[in-house]
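Worked Example 4.2. Consider the chain below.
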Amino acid sequence: MEPSSQTTKLSNQQRLLLKIQQATAKLHEIETAATEAIAIIGIGCRFPDGVDNPEAYWQFLKDGRDVRTDIPKDRWDIERYY
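Applying the procedure from the previous section yields the following structure tokens:
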């Protein structure tokens, strides 16, 4: 990256301080974005093991359950592809 005419006049310490300030500002921006609130405005649920509404889904997440199952043969024939 080509230094601008302003930064070429700065001492090494001044350039280092400028880089630290820029990095600090970027870090603050990232941390702020990571903690920004989100809103869930709609949800539809269709998961295995009777998880078919938001309350059941939330309980599923809280419990840390694993409800992975094999794909039913009438939905997708794995033998046809593998």
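The chain has two domains: 1-38, 39-82. The radius of gyration is 26 Å. Compare this with Example 4.1 before moving on.
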